Amino acid sequence: SNSLQDDYQRVISQVLPSVVQITTASGLGSGIIYDDKGDIVTNAHVVGTASTFQVSLANSTSQMDATLVGSYPDSDLAVIKLASPPSGLRPAAFGDSGKVEVGQITLAMGSPLGLSSSVTQGIVSATGRTVTEPKSTDSPGATIGNM
């Protein structure tokens, strides 16, 4: 058995159900379920100036209505809330960013180009830096900065 592959598959199966696709009138992006009350954390650039959204859970095509709770452009963070959260929402478990070390493997999950439930890998190349998010117009829905 390949333990690294097993670890990848275990983490993906634990985290992916907490990843959502967010659609606005002008685009789309990804977010993560924060709690079972329907709060979702995403990027401020994803919500833009919108106040209403359509949200799809991982591996689902059904859409749910959501509204803006708050947007913090200086931090590129935003919170939206599902109007009628379904039972069984899977909030993400959050780690301690202070324990991240250079060389650790990372996984990013989201909806690049609207392809829901996509997974990619990377590596922690540095810690303790203030970073600015790289912008990519080629792959909307795939923020690649500030992991």
TrEMBL record:
Pfam family membership, one: Trypsin_2
A GO biological process held by the record: proteolysis
InterPro entries tied to this protein: Chloro_Bact_Ser_Proteases, Peptidase_S1_PA, Peptidase_S1C
GO molecular-function term, one example from the UniProt record: serine-type endopeptidase activity
The organism of origin for this protein: Streptomyces tateyamensis
Region feature (Disordered): 128-147
Lineage: Bacteria, Bacillati, Actinomycetota, Actinomycetes, Kitasatosporales
UniProt keyword list: Hydrolase, Protease
Name assigned to this protein: Signal protein PDZ
